[in-house]
Amino acid sequence: MVAASFGGAPSIILGDFNLGIGDSDVFQHVIESQLWSDGASAFGHLPNSSERIHGPVPTHFPTHGLWAETKGGSKIDHVLLNSAALRITKDVWTSPLRVPGGHLPINIEVDVQALCCKGYFWKPPKAFKIPPWPKEDKGQSSDARLLKELEARGKIERIYLSDLDAALNSNDTVEAWRILEDMTDAYLSIREDQESLPKEGQNKTEGAKYPLRPIVPKVRKDGSISFEERETSKLLRRLCELLALSRHILLNHPRSEEFMVQRSNVWAKVKRMLPVHLPGDEDKEGCHAFTDCPPTMVLERTIDLVGARNHAKNIASSRKRMDDLKSILKEDFSSKAKACWNSVREPRPSPVNVTHDVDNGDELTADPKVLHSQLWKAWEPIFRRPSSFSWEDFEAQYRFEINQIKEKMAPWSFSMPTGAQLQARANKMPSEGSTGPDGRAPSELKRLPLWLWNHVARFWEGIYLKGGEWPQSLLKAHVAFIPKAGGLPATPVNLRPITILSASYRVFSSCMFRQLLAWHDQWCPSTLCGGRPGADALQTAMELGLTLEEALAIHKRGLLLISLDLSKFFDSIEWGLLDGLAHEFGMPANLRSGFSRFLSSLQRKMRVGDTYSAEWVNCLCGTPQGDALSILWANLAHVMLAKIMMDRPQVGIRIYVDDRYIWVRSLKEMKVVLRKVAIFDELCCSRLNPDKTKVLATTPHLRKKAALVIFNNCPIKVVKHLKGLGNTLSSCYRASHEEADARASKALDTVKRARRSLAPWKFRKRVISCKMQPQLCYSAAFARPKMALLRKLRTAAIGLIWGRGRAKRSPEMALIVCTDPLRSDPEMAIAVETILAIVRYVNRQPLMLYRIVGLLRTYELRAASRRGVNSNFPLRRFLHAVKCIGAQVDYWGVFSHPATPDLNLPRLNVKELVPYLRDAVRYQLSKQLAERSARIGKHGRAGRSDFCNLHPLIDWESTLVIFNERVDSEKGKGLTEERSKALTTILTGAQRNMARLFRHGEPIHPGLPPPTNATCPFCNSGKDENPQHIFWECEGFNGVRDSFLKELKKYDDTRGPSDLPVDQWESACRLNGIAPEDPAILQWKRAIPDEASYPPLPPWVPDPSRAFQSDDGRTQFGTDGGTDNSRDRKIRSSGIGIYGGGASSWQYQSPLRGPIQQNDKAELVALVIHAEGVVLQADAFPRGVEVFVDNKAVCEQAQRLADGYSPPPSLAHAWWWRRLAKAVSEVPRPSFFKYTWIPSHVSDQDVADGKITVDQRHLNEGADALATAGKQSNAPPGAALLSFTKRTKAVRTVQLMLVAVHLARKSKEAALIDSLLVNQIRVARWTGPSPPAALPDGLAALKRAVPSYCYHAGDLLQKVPNLYRRLLTIFLPDKTRRSRIAVEAIKWYWANLEWPSQPSALNRGISWAELTLDFIAATGMKVIGQGHNGSTSLDKAKLAFSKISKFLHGKLDRDLYPSLEGKVTSLGPFGVRNAVEGLKVAPKPMRPCEWLPLVRSTTVGAPAPYVSLLQLPLAEVRSSFPRPYVPLQEGFRRTFFPPPLSPLGD
To answer: Is the pLDDT score of 1212 beyond 80?
Structure first.
């Protein structure tokens, strides 16, 4: 990361990395940081040739055969470029020439001259940093804010208001906008708590600029490192220079005298810098002790000390930055949501930085001038195309259709956006949104008050209603060219221009679009789907897919679907066409003038990468992509085409922005349609993209004939599968998985990024529901990914929510307990989204239900045929999804599942259906778990003994409700984090026990051997420790479970006759805390009658004793709905009541029918039954009716329907709302129905206060009594309800008991492990190697602090036979500088080391540093090499010791030590993260008590533990007497008593 931004210098990293980009977390993090780019991918858009292959292709082929077949290779060679290097790189390609080693060469071409190229960069003004309002005392916060706001408003209006009013009154909108900008800056500066108010007319201190500077800035002296690092680097360079000069002088260089002068000068500089960067206490015998230049040996030591000190500081700084980042995201991601989401965001494509320089031999160049020149050369014909549009010709062609549309249009009213609307829209803008050329940031607009927005609204009225002049700051925009998706070459013409307008204009444009929707809906037919509520791309694709499916499944004749895509549609819309149609359809002239002046005066600067064009340019056609009004103009440009196609009965059309889809039944009709399209495009000056013009034909005959059709001088491309609107449209039964597989791979990459993220666990769960599931399931109704990809994704999702350790958890239970399985299980998520897509489509298009019923009926009759079962058609996918979740559906849409009541899907919306689908998915996952657990494996036993008898019908609401309780220790509610994790472990079957460890051969701790039996170690019963024994039988936890068993005994004493006692419950409930479903409750739910079978109201007979009428003569009624057990969906029951008076005939009560029991639905059903009854007897109510409703939301929506509005499809209970809308519309008299809200459950005092009248109260109480009677008749059986309630409480008690026992066992297990590790005691039930000797007190204390270090090398220790006798015959060369006494000691040391034949589990090898320390402690030899003394570092001693040992090892034919050399992690328990050099198997150290505590004290808390250890002076290594090695004694023995040959020798 440092190299990526080092002073802006170009940095290139290339080589053989032996792994791919996707195989390394580091690579992925580097690429996703966008500081580095993969060179092969960045230049993959360039064309290939015989000598150059572009893109990330395999570069390593182990054999010639694979290279010849160009398969089986891997991409392990990479080129990484930082942003500065990317600007000057001309090309990166792979040569198709295999070199020795199996690699293909990677080439990089750099434009050195680009270092001198300059480009324009945008420097926006610094945005105001507005702090949030301070938190003040409760009750005073709003008053204090109001006072501050009034004070700021008074200050600003005193300065600016008079000038603003004068400018607006004279319609000087340019001056008015300047004053509004000043007012905005003044207000924001006050909010930013600046000391003084800006003077009148003063704007931001720094405006937007476009400076011209080099595209690769020069490396600054300071680079990107701190001052201390820079000075340390300077000191190291001077020390190295001093060392080189000294060596030249010692060798009598011819220029020695000159070098001596230079050395004196450099030494003077070094001496001044040393005290700052190397304190004297760290360099006592180094350069500090010399007044003149020290010897070379001292200089070498000082260089090592300075380098090691600098390295340690760098490591400490890096770790601190990483710890800071972790601490930021550790607690709660809500305040750091942006940082968390950025960590899982997809890497953006590399910007286009190179182009072909046609004027210079067609070479690639990174010069911004050439790049912008080539870009403008490609886009100038589009942006500045001379207009050839003729409104007269267009009008003459389509005058009849225009008149038809105008005849159907009703009068409409328009009003400009108000200040409140502008403010509301600004508040919805993202704070990090793009800033326009004027430099006004969206975050600033979100802070503006309403009174300032009111002035802005007056300004816009001056522009549009009074014809004011547009300010220049609003007429400037940046055009950002971004690569298109789909892998197209990133050539200038294939880029997508996105216009970044002023943020102030974007707020107004969005509000203006909403204001013009009423006018838009007057002339826009339903076939134009863009920008219409409820007609998104997926719904449009659903209709196309159903049309194709219907043609293929039912109709005998074929179907031709033509896909027409316009090239550069937004950028080529003719302004004359828009103005003419807007005029014809009644848009006022002042509005048309305002829009026309904006489009014609808009100036743009082009941006490529991060450089901008030099000049502002105007366009002659098109609407900016990025303007909310562009969707409206796109529909207006297509309205005539939609109209002429709708007039042909055999033609269907859907237009979504610039995508046209037309379907016909015959080839003749297709030719006619294409001819009309060509005429329309010619008149509109539009240009079709021939590459994207394709035809789907449902029969082979039509495919053959359609391929011969010529359109726009090009043959039409006939395909079987087509990507349309992000979905796969198909004309055959064979499925296409490409798009679905791509989405699954994208979701898998997202999950992998989330696993590498530092974000907390709560955020990772949200990644699944908010990121992974939408990416995976967008086109679920058309295609499903391959099962192999879904399995990978499921494994990755479980790893994301569970972590690294699998801990024997059940994956199905992990998904159910830890997440919502509707979203987290990929297969189920796709199935559920497919079902919801069909339900959502039927809700928005109710008339399509009959077409769907016909298709389902056809499939039911063809149930024996499997043709097209896995095809890309929506209903085929729907039937497959229903089967996937274990359900059935008939052709009328009745959904049946063992875990749910029967559901009529067309009558439900998504919100109502999702809970039942969740029940079905949980049932299916539980069933799969039970089947998998009961399956007999290769060892002859079930897969899982804990879930093999699991019944899939589980009450998951009762099981998981404890997780949602708020923690209250006093009341015993909720779970702490530790207890929550414990219950999660128990529910998912991840509980540790000796039976499981014994069965799988796993140790209780890595430092201990596996158990040889399953006996419980916490009691003396001798029984196997399994879940039944742990939770219910083990004597060691009797005290923990006693209080819970008392509560469970109360349940056994009061349970019903049909309920089982606790000890007879299913094992999943007793051992895992999983509550079973009550069959009686489900049976009651299924017995509720269908909701379409309500009896009608009787003939109306009013109450003769009391007339309930309003002042205007309306007959008054009361309706109500009531619900019991409203918080529990499973036992909720509702009723309805309609009351017309005490003696009237309308005293209607009924239980709410259907599976959905909700209070608002009961209120709505009562209104529907009442309205339908009134409609049948409308003559009995000559003045209309008034209905009193105590549900405000239902009342307000019902009144909207009575006023003539249509119910939106997203409403809950949409089927009932449509019935109500139909009923109130059948009465021809206007305002016949009136719905009035009244409060419920009022008192006499409320009547006296006038909150409600006596009649209203009487009618409401009567309806409430009837609804109460209705819900009581609908209640579940009393015995079943009581049993359900008691059992739910008992299961909660069982869960709490299981958690308490689990935590108690966990504590005892930790104590057991500690005792086994510290004292190395093997209890009788643990068999294995003989126990080692007890550790000395010094090491015992150390082992408690560092338990994972290898204190016991292993068993069956023995020395290397005859090693000492063989070593006596080996001598080092005479020229060696090593101490001969030390060499003899090293021989003795190796000869007396004992090696384990059975290494222990913790034996990770031993490093050369540890061996050196043990050698010094055993022999006292601290002088190993020449010049060594007590101040010599362990690093130098290690090098000398290892070099001598390796020399002896080689002389003995590699018999010095019976272990391989390599990288070991023996120092990992002391904080050394990386592997270091050593021996793979550790011997038994001779004197670990002497040096292990020193290693601990040196490394603990050190930022770089291994570096600190290597800097350790040898004087600090203890070697107490008596030592095992005595030099004089050993010399005497060697001379007079040589060791005899061992019987084990050769």
So the answer is: yes
Which strands form 36-38's sheet, in the order they lie side by side? 12-16, 77-82, 36-38
pLDDT at residue 1166 above 90? yes
Query: What gap in Å lies between CA 90 and CA 347, rounded to an integer?
Result: 22
Residue with tokens 């400076």: 211
- Assigned token pair, 862: 């063809």
The single-letter code of the amino acid at 744 is: A
Residue 478 confidence (pLDDT) above 90: yes
H or E segment to which residue 1535 belongs: helix 1527-1536
End-to-end alpha carbon distance in the chain: 58
For 1479-1509, the DSSP string reads: ESS--B-S-HHHHHHHHHHHHTT-SSHHHHH
Q: Is 894 helix (H, G, I), strand (E, B) or coil?
A: strand
**Alpha-helical regions (H) of 665-786:** 667-684, 700-706, 738-756, 761-767, 773-777
d(CA 1018, CA 1037): 9
Whether the CB-CB separation of 1175 and 1227 falls below 8 Å is answered with: yes
**pLDDT confidence of residue 200:** 39
Q: Are strands 12-16 and 77-82 parallel, antiparallel or unpaired?
A: antiparallel
Listed in order, strand segments (DSSP E) in 350-461 are 355-357, 363-365
CA dist., res. 1060 & res. 1066, Å (int):
10
Q: What is the band of 194 on the pLDDT scale with cuts at 50, 70, 90?
A: very low
Q: At what angle are helices 826-844 and 874-884 packed, to 10 degrees? A: 130
Task: Say which DSSP state 666 is in.
Answer: S
Phi and psi at 1133, nearest 5°, equal -140, 140
Upper half-sphere CA count for residue 450 (Cβ side, 13 Å): 6
DSSP string, 266-335: HHHHHHHHHHHHS-GGG-TTTGGG-SSPPPHHHHHHHHHHHHHHHHHHHHHHHHHHHHHHHHHHHS-SST
Query: How many Cα atoms are found within 13 Å in the side-chain-facing hemisphere of 1276?
Result: 26
DSSP 1031: I
Do 1031 and 1070 meet the contact criterion of CB atoms below 8 Å apart? yes
Q: Are 1516 and 1332 in contact (CB under 8 A)?
A: no
Are 61 and 94 spatial neighbours (Cβ–Cβ below 8 Å)?
Answer: no
- Name the phi and psi angles at 1021, rounded to 5: -75, -25
Q: Tokens representing 676?
A: 């009309």
Q: Per DSSP, what are the bridge partners of residue 80?
A: 13, 38
- Across 393-398, average pLDDT: 92
Q: Could you tell me if 305 and 280 are in contact, meaning their C-beta atoms sit under 8 angstroms apart?
A: no
